[in-house]
Amino acid sequence: MSKEKWYNHPWLLAIFAVVGPGIYDLIKGYPFLDTYKKIINFLYIGISTFFNFNIKLWWLLLAIVIYKTISFLIKKYRTKEKDFKDYTSGTLKNWKWSWEWTRPSVNSNWIVSNLTPHCSANGMCDTQMLRGYNRQAQIEYKCPRCGHNTGNNIEYERDIEALIIDNIQKKNF
Ligand SMILES: [Zn+2]
User: Fold this and answer.
1) What pLDDT, in 10s, does the model give residues 110-136?
2) Are 154 and 136 a contacting pair, CB within 8 Å?
3) How far is the CA of 119 from the centre of ligand 1 (A)?
4) Centroid of ligand 1 to alpha carbon of 29 (angstroms)
5) 133, 142 contact by CB (below 8 A)
6) How far is the CA of 115 from the centre of ligand 1 (A)?
7) Model confidence over 49-79: pLDDT tens digits?
8) Short-list 143, 99, 140, 98, CA closest to 119
9) Beta-bridge partner residues of 112
10) 3-class DSSP state for residue 48?
11) Helix axes 34-52, 10-28, angle to 10 degrees
12) N or C, fewer C-beta in 10 Å, the chain?
């Protein structure tokens, strides 16, 4: 899961070093305006000087080490910023859900509480639904605003809670 910017990639510089002169030769063959030619020439000399510079291997290694260290620190810092306690709603399976994070006691783990599905009727209602039971004592949810009833076609809170925790573990929230 590499999120490194493409232009930071060392391989790109290497490819450019190899392909660059070829492109230059190609452009040289066309009758451009003199000024434009001069600019390209100037750039080419600058770039080729840069790439032909007699660099010592340990500079390169040092640069790689510094680059890796910095990107590692940035990544670590960013992960720290993302707090699972800010993750309090989301579409899991087919329904939208919202929940809270509570801790039964100071030293215990955080747990998901008040996990509630939102009404999806008309695509706009978005009201927290009420949990109830039908005549066969099966769980169903009903919308207090528009009366939408899920009937038997429900999603289970236990599954949703497991998916929330799984998303957090995969840092996918
Ligand atoms: Zn509704």
Assistant:
1) 999 999 999 988 778 999 999 988 888
2) no
3) 5
4) 69
5) no
6) 17
7) 777 766 677 888 899 999 999 999 888 777 6
8) 143
9) 101
10) helix
11) 140
12) N
> Are 89 and 101 spatial neighbours (Cβ–Cβ below 8 Å)?
no
**DSSP string spanning 54-119?**
---HHHHHHHHHHHHHHHHHHHHHHHHH--GGG--EEEETTEEEEEEEE-SSTTSPPEEEEEEEB-
Residues in the chain: 173
Q: Cα of 129 to ligand 1 centre, how many Å? A: 8
Residue spans of the domains in the chain: they are 6-81, 85-169
Distance in Å, CA 167 to ligand 1 centroid: 27
Residue 1 is predicted with a pLDDT of 44
Strand-strand pairing, 130-133 and 111-117: unpaired
| pTM (two decimals) | 0.52
Q: Residues 120, 122, 128, CA angle at the centre, nearest 5°? A: 35
Q: Output the CA 140–ligand 1 centroid distance in Å.
A: 14
State in Å: Cα 123 to ligand 1 middle. Answer: 9
Residue type, 171: K
Give the burial string for 73-105 (b: 16+ CB within 10 Å, else e).
eeeeeeeeeeeeeeeeeeebeebebebebeeee
